[in-house]
Request: fold
Amino acid sequence: MSTDNTAVGERHHAHHFNNAEHEFNTSMFGVWCFLLTEILMFGGLFVGYFIFHNLYPDMFAEGASHLDWRYGATNTLVLLMSSFTMVLSIYYARKNNTKMISWCLFITLLCAIAFMGIKYIEYSHKIHEGLLPGELFSYAHAEAANLGLYFSFYFMMTGLHGSHVLVGMGLITWILIRARRGEFNEHYYTPVEGVGLFWHLVDLIWIYLFPLLYLVG
Amino acid sequence: MSDSHHPVTSFETYRNVILALIFLTVVTVAIAKPVSGFDLGVLNGALAMFVATLKAYLVAAYFMGLRFEDKINKSILIMGVVFLALLFTVCMFDIMTRVPVTSTL
Reply:
């Protein structure tokens, strides 16, 4: 992995690339291919959700009534803000402002922690009530006979998304450490851009998850 | 140079995008039946997805930089969406045209 920076002008690039821009574009292409696989993975779950929502609309409305939309809306705003600070870290890298790169990455990380905190509160409440996926469903006051199906979707989709948030937090921590070492500047910010793209995808998925799980009436 | 082909997007642009996203989130919540009682029947879901797609477009175009990037990366994202739409459409055709079978045993 090429992390050497020449102080001025063109930075060092691996020998099998024509120049640094070629290496950067190749890295971005690779990240986008990976994001494509993520879209298809989550997409499969969304397709399953749409099919069963169409088959059992009332059951899905009942399931959504057990979710607090205020937690969901707060989490949406938290993730949108984290995307904003994430893209700002790239902006500041291109402006050679090392201090602001670190600050923006740190705030992104704080937003991610806040998101997981709210998720923890929500999950605790569901576990306490017995609103659990599949065979674990033990809620006593369900109207629909198959309400457990809703919570299978809820836990599968938010769980997979939450695990992506956790991985994202690890990645952001990694580039935060590198940023504090002064490794990023206008000539080299590839890892920041790459992690940023992954983080924006996590945000994109939540943008769809929120109305589909919380706002069904 | 890491990317000599596109200029740095301005702070103001990013700020405007996040403000638009916050506004659209408020809209999302305001048009939701469990929150405000806003009820257009089937259209509720379609409207919610339309607003979500608007937000997704803003994130993809500006935060992910697709507006200013090479076509190849845009194509990858669009390809994913197209194949998902294909999966969804074919599955829905299947499910919606199923006739329940009643046993005579």
Notes: Residues 4-9 of chain A have pLDDT under 50 and may be disordered.
